[in-house]
Design goal:
Order of helices and strands: EEEE
Distance between the termini: 9 Å
Strand content: over 45%
Structural class: mainly beta
Largest sheet: 4 strands, antiparallel
Helix content: under 10%
CATH topology: Rubrerythrin, domain 2
Bound molecules: zinc ion
Length: 59
């Protein structure tokens, strides 16, 4: 219950804006996570630069 809010990083393809991946991460390690990274997009069928967007999930 006192676990707090989970931080999520949503990776979105910069080409088609599709969410490629959602990863949970520790807030303390936030600095180590890059803002943009190449990921494989199923829709584009290629590796595209994915932008990270932080999201908080309450409850
Ligand atoms: Zn794409």
């Amino acid at each position: 219950m006192s676990h707090g809010k989970s931080q999520f990083a949503v990776w979105r393809c910069t080409d088609c804006k599709t969410i490629i991946q959602t990863t949970a991460y520790d807030k303390r390690r936030n600095d180590e996570i890059t803002k943009e990274v190449k990921k494989y997009c199923k829709k584009c069928r290629k590796h595209t630069p994915a932008k990270r967007k932080d999201a908080k999930k309450s409850s």
